[in-house]
Design brief:
The protein is mainly β. It is globular, with a radius of gyration of 13 Å. Strand 5 and strand 6 form a beta hairpin. The strands form 2 sheets. Strands 2, 4, 5, 6, 9, 10 and 11 form a 7-stranded mixed sheet that branches. Strands 1-3-8-7 form a 4-stranded antiparallel sheet, with no helix packed on it. It is about 0% helix and about 50% strand.
């Protein structure tokens, strides 16, 4: 079993930055991918970014491309989401999710990921 724990959320003014962390423990793996999703009340969980553990290939939602950066620290089994130039519409609960194998298919779909963290709140004030 894999456990994912997010941290780093908080309250920030528009234009500011935050760095989220997703620490993996348990049956971790060197292949596969880790993604960030976000969700606001009444809306479906939305894909933000994904990275593969091995090749470090990345993909981003259009709404965050150029502002957010996803990265890994394999030695720490941790994935980061650096969020710059934050906007009020980035306010959400952010979740990390993982899958044990690499795929290029359906990387934005929530049911493509078997493991999920508990989420961390990000609030951007205007």
């Amino acid at each position: 079993q894999v456990q994912l724990v997010e941290s780093g959320g908080g309250l920030v003014q528009a234009g500011g930055s935050l760095r989220l962390s997703c620490a993996a423990s348990g049956r971790t793996f060197s292949t596969g991918q880790v993604a960030w999703f976000r969700q606001t009340p009444g809306k479906e969980r939305e894909f933000v970014a994904v990275i593969s553990w091995s090749s470090e290939s990345t993909n981003y939602a259009d709404s965050v491309r150029g502002r957010f950066t996803i990265s890994t620290d394999n030695a720490k089994n941790t994935v980061y989401l650096q969020m710059n130039s934050l906007k009020p519409e980035d306010t959400a609960v952010y979740y990390c999710a993982a899958r044990s194998t690499y795929t290029r298919e359906r990387i934005t779909a929530t049911n493509n990921y078997a493991y999920w963290g508990q989420g961390t709140q990000v609030t951007v004030s205007s």
